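To illustrate the input format used throughout this study, we show a single complete record. The first block contains the structure-token representation of the backbone; no residue identities are included at this stage. The design step must infer an amino acid for every position from geometry alone.
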């Protein structure tokens, strides 16, 4: 004798969710529907807000709509670019010493290091490194292009001196 299969009721149809009309503003005023997805209603600079029909200045928000700037924590725009201010981790503005320290970092530090090594090698050892000043000058150019001009100038001076010492050690100049 065979057992008949159990009768399973078909699932009840779920009501269709209708998308809002294109250009509709969300209830909180932070985004609007473009027909496919929700888009931030605040311009990247925070000066303009989309009211569903046009961009209006943030200062003229309708009553009940919060004024949001681009850097507001309530604005969930993943494409916004926030310009960091001149503060460190402590929130204190950059001091002269920290800016000066930045000038001697990165490519400028490499340039200074190559220059120092090209000066010290012929003075302390019996060999010289003729390509180090060239690498140092190359890193100084990179440092200048990245805004580290003070450190790059120090690196250029050291690499010129190191290059002259390498030429003296090789006997190409001075005798």
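Output of the design step:
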């Amino acid at each position: 004798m065979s057992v008949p299969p159990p009768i399973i009721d078909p699932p009840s149809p779920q009501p269709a969710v209708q998308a809002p009309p294109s250009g509709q503003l969300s209830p909180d005023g932070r985004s609007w529907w473009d027909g496919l997805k929700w888009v931030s209603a605040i311009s990247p600079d925070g000066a303009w807000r989309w009211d569903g029909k046009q961009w209006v200045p943030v200062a003229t928000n309708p009553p009940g709509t919060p004024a949001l700037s681009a850097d507001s924590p309530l604005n969930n725009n993943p494409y916004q670019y926030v310009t960091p201010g001149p503060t460190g981790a402590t929130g204190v503005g950059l001091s002269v010493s920290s800016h000066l320290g930045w000038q001697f970092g990165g490519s400028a530090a490499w340039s200074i290091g190559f220059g120092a090594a090209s000066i010290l090698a012929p003075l302390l050892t019996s060999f010289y490194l003729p390509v180090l000043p060239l690498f140092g000058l190359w890193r100084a150019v990179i440092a200048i292009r990245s805004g580290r001009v003070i450190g790059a100038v120090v690196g250029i001076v050291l690499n010129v001196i190191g290059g002259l010492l390498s030429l003296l050690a090789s006997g190409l100049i001075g005798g």
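Structural context for interpreting the output: Confidence is low (pLDDT under 50) at residues 69-74, 78-82. The longest helix spans residues 149-170.
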